[in-house]
Amino acid sequence: MISLQIKVTKNMMNALLASECFDAFLLEEAAVTTFNTFHIDGHIVKDFYTSEELLEQTCAFSLWRDVRPFCFQLIKGKKTPVSFKVVLHAPDGLVEKIAADPECGVAANLIRALALNIRYDNGHVVCVTGCAYSTFLMDKSAEKLWDAYVRRMLSGLNIDFEEL
After folding, report:
1. Which residues contact 4 (CB under 8 A, 6 or more apart)?
2. What are the φ/ψ torsions at residue 57 (nearest 5 degrees)?
3. What angle do CA 25, 133, 144 make, to 5 degrees?
4. What is Dmax (Cα atoms) for the chain?
5. Cα(75)–Cα(72) distance, rounded to whole angstroms?
6. Rounded to the nearest 5°, which phi and psi values hold at 40?
7. Comparing C-alpha atoms, which of 82, 78, 74, 90 is closest to residue 40?
8. Residue 105 CB: number of other CB atoms within 10 A?
9. pTM
């Protein structure tokens, strides 16, 4: 787990809300506080879908790309939000890619989630990584590879950060 302080808030906000950079990620939850606090539960509500549509659903969470426009509408405007929180999970393909790395000693089926928590508060954005396993493991190689991936991803998006 690492905690990264984003140096230029605007760059992170643009990447998260106004571009497709994070669209492949899955949304566990989001909370935006402006004049009210808006909570979004990213869990798929199966009762909403037909049985045919459910066959197409392969994940328990919504894609960020499907919820991003709603969050953007809540945040955009002349006044900045009081705070917001977005909890994203790596898509299955990325989890499998990290697990397939020769340096990883953890099978993909044991990785329950590779999470990225993005929090905005008091004008600052902090990103915190997390790794959850389906069982107790001493091996932290998947977590270290996930941390390295997030650092590379943010750097590739020209988002400067410092580790806290």
Report:
1. 126, 127, 128, 150, 151, 154, 161, 162, 163, 164
2. -75, 120
3. 70
4. 49
5. 5
6. -125, 120
7. 74
8. 13
9. 0.92
Residue written as tokens 């991936």?
149
CB-count exposure of residue 47 (10 Å: 0-12, 13-18, 19+): exposed
Determine the pLDDT at residue 47: 85
- Which long-range CB contacts under 8 A does 104-111 form with residues at least 24 apart? 104/141, 104/142, 104/145, 105/139, 105/141, 105/142, 106/133, 106/137, 106/139, 106/141, 106/142, 109/134, 110/134, 110/135, 110/137, 111/142
Collapse the DSSP code of 4 into the 3-class scheme (helix H, G, I; strand E, B; otherwise coil) and give the result: strand
For 79-109, the pLDDT digits (tens) are: 889 999 999 999 999 999 999 999 999 999 9
If you compute the radius of gyration of the chain from its CA atoms, what whole number of angstroms results?
16
Residue 70 Cα distances to 29, 73, 74, 92, angstroms: 13, 5, 6, 24
The sign of the dihedral angle between the CA atoms of 68, 32, 153, 63 is: negative
Please state, in angstroms and rounded to a whole number, the distance separating the CA atoms of residues 8 and 41.
28
